[in-house]
Design brief:
Oligomer: heterodimer
Strand order of the largest sheet of chain A: 2-1-5-3-4
Number of strands of chain A: 5
Helix content of chain A: 25-40%
Largest sheet of chain B: 7 strands, mixed
Number of helices of chain A: 6
Helix content of chain B: 25-40%
Strand content of chain A: 5-15%
Radius of gyration of chain B: 27 Å
Order of helices and strands of chain A: EEHEEEHHHHH
Radius of gyration of chain A: 16 Å
Strand order of the largest sheet of chain B: 11-12-9-19-16-17-18
Chain lengths: ~180, ~750
């Protein structure tokens, strides 16, 4: 039995300690927002945060994260604790980043971890941090633009912008 | 605007022992997210349009979403003709059902081939609402008009809501689809506008449901070890160690399937377990001996060389105009080149997955499929059901995490059905990344040859084009050696140049791996050859590549390949409505050249390259700027200009073009599947790399304003991108890349 804090709730997992977190999330806890992409830590589709840092859950045994704090896309919040309203998620909607959307949970979890570590990343820092996340649809331009925008808005302290405002912005900007 | 997932047949699920209400975790229940009360009654106006008493409109999207935005665009077109307010529209995904007509989502066909019929669906429903209102007011039909979710009495300004009219309208006999009047393009209020995307909020919240995400009670996860060589068989296997893994429930050998392969499963041995990890651990401990069969003779490196030599010889006639073989070519004015492209793989982020429940002769499936009805027919065959028993198979269509042509094939769906039947439990088949990379339906390895002589007026003539590659039709007919005319129409038999002497030829080729449609299909190799060769002619003639394109295209005219003997199908589009229009081509070549400023003065180690291809009914030009230093290529900027006629959802057209540039970048620089002794050598993203953020150039998209009938958009962006990059490399380095990918020669 391994105890972790998942999306701010303490849970106990009775699984093979070697089971990667990805399969515990998806098969045992039915949290399917975190995706399987490669099973080898190469594509980033399975990215979650462990203690706020981006980690590839497909190669992360449960035993390695006992007593740690795990956040998945389902638990991503803004600074006020509102689920689904993180600065990164708002920017993702504003720039209409996703195409098929499959890699985007991982992209957003990576991007959010970047902004937690470096609130105002340079282009080089964004590229360095995000190059582990593959998007086969090729949404990279918008990913980069959305991260920059989320960072900028955090500075201007308008992270609490409402969804309706974002929609309006989004329709005005028509994407990236 | 909210998305609702598939509406499931609860009664049936009850019958197969799954309690309704809690039967699927992670799949939204019917109407759970609708903007209407569950108590509100829906009235169906046709298979696609239902309206509730509270005016909520529910539209069915019958085509499959793989990232192109079709679950927004199809309802958007219906809502346009219906005069519905987008804020009051819900979208339901259609199951496989012939009543919807074609559901095959491929060939960039959804809008280019079905724009009018989708409009008619909305127009018929609008007509019924207007008729209902006219009946209530006892006026002629032309005295009323649907407007933004109401029908208005034009003279009095009185209005009745769609919700109030729905029950009356549903009782009327629908008019014939082709008898209803469609809107004038000038009156469009939704088509051409960026509406809210149907799936955006769910995706960003991590709540969107893909085939990999399906969860059923009592479900087993299955992973399959398939024969390493196509046509191979299991000689024997030992499952003892696999079955010792906690959670592994069963090991099942899949049935052998004879050639032709069609889209059947490849057979192999499946490990079924209570969770993914146990299935994968069990799989590692399987011991299998294989009989590889005769395809183990295949080595792609040698095969590519063989194809390259083959195309340097005269082939079988595809089209002919004038005479090229009596002509005396002058070496100083002649360009001759052979281009090769390796096997290329889709590498969708979501590997194939499907879930099936089989009970007696009934079956329920959840799968991400580009072709639900084709999958349904294959499942019927698997279960021994007749064409009249398709209703026994409920196929729910999930979102696809990328597809690019791969998920048109139903092999993985039939695998799930076969294993669900054998295990008598719900089964989800999941493909690992290695499975996907090594057992794909690949874009065929190919060689293209071009030869032409420059003319005095800066153009060229005495043109020979040849190609050789394993045809897709081999899947169904093992005697097939050459591509069909439909395949040859993809940027090969439809050369738009003003030539007096032209010979287009094909070669017969053997097949060894499963071929398939990869985004833009044979336009990848044909477009690479054509775009590269025009650049080579320009270099030889000491002209700009833009000028060479303009000179070759010649006067403004509509080209008809039938006139030089090619049986041209024009992507199943009417050639009068969708002509090969040289003016639109020249306009685009000028547009891309000007927008990208390709004539700018650059440092010696930088260069611009351009190219063009009309494909899937759309015209696309591309320009790329690269830098080559220390034997390393860096793509600095890329542009595409697209003329796809009427645009439905502009931002998604833009998104497809952005994506096509990245997809093309991967093909040009790094995509290669190689085969040794019949076995694919690559396995995951470390040896089948695709473009990452650090390789992304600056991207620009230019959309031409047009009132022409709509062309396709998912694929046409790709073909011109690849040669624009290799041409740019030539202009930056004087090294001509004729064999893809670029990383054979340069580091990237």
């Amino acid at each position: 039995m391994i105890k972790i804090t998942l999306n701010q709730k303490v849970i106990k997992l009775d699984v093979d300690p070697q089971m990667p977190l990805l399969y515990a999330l998806r098969d045992e806890l039915k949290l399917t927002g975190t995706k399987f992409g490669c099973g080898a830590g190469q594509c980033g589709a399975c990215t979650v945060q462990v203690n706020g840092k981006a980690m590839r859950s497909c190669v992360l045994p449960i035993s390695a994260i006992a007593e740690q704090e795990v956040t998945t896309i389902e638990g991503l919040t803004n600074t006020a604790g509102q689920i689904g309203e993180s600065a990164v998620q708002l920017a993702w909607r504003e720039f209409k980043v996703p195409q098929c959307g499959y890699c985007q949970s991982g992209q957003m979890m990576s991007a959010d971890a970047l902004l937690k570590a470096i609130p105002q990343p340079s282009d080089e820092q964004i590229i360095e941090h995000m190059q582990g996340n593959i998007c086969r649809c090729g949404t990279y331009k918008r990913i980069k633009a959305a991260i920059k925008s989320a960072a900028e808005k955090s500075t201007n302290n308008v992270a609490g912008i409402s969804i309706d405002n974002v929609r309006q912005l989004s329709n005005e900007k028509q994407g990236a | 605007m909210k998305a609702i997932e598939n509406v499931s047949r609860r009664g049936f699920l009850k019958a197969v022992g799954i309690a309704s209400g809690s039967f699927v975790l992670g799949i939204k229940l019917p109407l759970a997210h609708a903007k209407t009360s569950l108590k509100s009654t829906f009235h169906q106006l046709n298979f696609f349009v239902s309206i509730a008493n509270d005016s909520t409109v529910t539209l069915v999207c019958h085509r499959s979403e793989m990232g192109q935005g079709i679950r927004t665009s199809v309802p958007q077109i219906i809502a346009e003709e219906l005069e519905a307010n987008w804020q009051q529209v819900n979208v339901v995904q259609a199951k496989a059902d012939t009543k919807y007509g074609s559901q095959g989502t491929g060939g960039s066909a959804s809008i280019r081939n079905h724009f009018t019929s989708i409009r008619q669906i909305g127009a018929v429903a609008r007509h019924m609402l207007e008729q209902a209102a006219a009946n209530i007011w006892q006026v002629e039909l032309n005295a009323v008009k649907a407007q933004q979710h109401f029908v208005v009495h034009t003279a009095t300004g009185e209005k009745i809501s769609f919700g109030e009219l729905a029950s009356h309208a549903a009782k009327l006999t629908p008019p014939e689809n082709d008898k209803v009047k469609l809107k004038n393009n000038a009156d469009f209020s939704l088509i051409g506008k960026d509406v809210e995307l149907v799936d955006l909020d769910d995706i960003v919240a991590g709540k969107a449901t893909y085939a990999q995400d399906i969860q059923l009670p009592n479900m087993l996860i299955a992973t399959i070890v398939r024969p390493p060589v196509v046509g191979g068989k299991v000689a024997s296997f030992d499952a003892t160690q696999a079955l010792k893994i906690k959670g592994v429930v069963d090991v099942i050998q899949l049935k052998e399937r004879p050639l032709p392969l069609t889209i059947n499963p490849l057979s192999g041995v499946a490990v079924l377990a209570n969770n993914t990890w146990a299935a994968l651990e069990g799989r590692k401990r399987l011991k299998i001996k294989w009989l590889h069969g005769d395809k183990q003779s295949h080595n792609s490196k040698e095969f590519s060389k063989k194809l390259a030599l083959q195309v340097q010889t005269k082939g079988e006639k595809v089209a002919l105009k004038g005479n090229v073989y009596n002509h005396q070519y002058h070496e100083e004015n002649t360009v001759e080149a052979t281009y090769t492209v390796p096997y290329i793989h889709h590498a969708s982020m979501e590997t194939p997955a499907a879930t099936a429940v089989v009970e007696g002769n009934k079956c329920t499936i959840w799968a991400g499929t580009q072709n639900p009805q084709w999958a349904q027919r294959n499942v019927a065959r698997e279960l021994g059901l007749s064409k009249n028993e398709l209703d026994n198979i409920e196929l729910n269509v999930t979102l696809m995490g990328g597809a690019f042509g791969r998920k048109s094939k139903a092999d993985f769906i039939v695998e799930a059905v076969e294993l669900a039947k054998a295990s008598k439990r719900p089964v989800k088949v999941i493909w690992s990344r290695e499975d996907d990379t090594q057992h794909g339906f690949y874009h065929s390895i190919s060689a293209n040859y071009c030869k032409a002589e420059l003319t005095k007026n800066g153009s060229a003539d005495h043109w020979i084009s040849r190609n050789a590659y394993p045809p897709i039709s081999w899947l169904w007919n093992t005697n097939a050696k050459t591509p069909s005319d439909n395949q040859l129409a993809l940027g090969f038999g439809d050369i738009p140049f003003a030539l007096n002497n032209l010979s287009i030829e094909k070669h017969a080729v053997d097949s060894f791996v499963r071929p398939g449609w990869v985004r833009s299909v044979a336009c990848i190799n044909n477009g690479f050859a054509l775009g590269s060769f025009v650049d080579e002619l320009a270099v030889k003639a000491k002209l700009t590549t833009r000028q060479m394109w303009l000179n070759l295209l010649g006067d403004d005219r509509h080209v008809d390949p039938k006139k030089y003997g090619f049986n041209y199908s024009n992507y199943n589009l009417d050639l009068n409505a969708h002509p090969i229009d040289t003016k639109r081509m020249k306009d685009l070549i000028n547009l891309i050249s000007d927008k990208a400023n390709v004539d700018e003065k650059l440092p010696d180690n930088q260069g611009w390259g351009i190219s063009f291809l009309r494909s899937f009914g759309s015209f696309v030009a591309a320009a790329s700027k690269v830098e080559v230093s220390n034997n390393k290529v860096k793509v600095l900027a890329m542009h595409t200009a697209v003329d796809c006629g009427i645009v439905v959802t502009p931002d998604r057209v833009k998104a497809q073009m952005e994506g096509a540039m990245i997809f093309g970048l991967s093909i040009a620089l790094m995509n290669e599947i190689s085969v040794v002794d019949g076995q694919v050598q690559q396995s995951n993203f470390h040896d089948y790399p695709v473009a990452r953020l650090n390789q992304m150039p600056e991207l620009f998209v230019h959309i031409v304003d047009s009132n022409a009938p709509p062309g396709g958009i998912g694929e046409p962006g790709v073909p011109p991108v690849v040669p624009s990059i290799t041409n740019a490399i030539y202009h930056a380095s004087k090294t001509r890349i004729r064999d893809l990918p670029v990383n054979k020669v340069f580091s990237i």
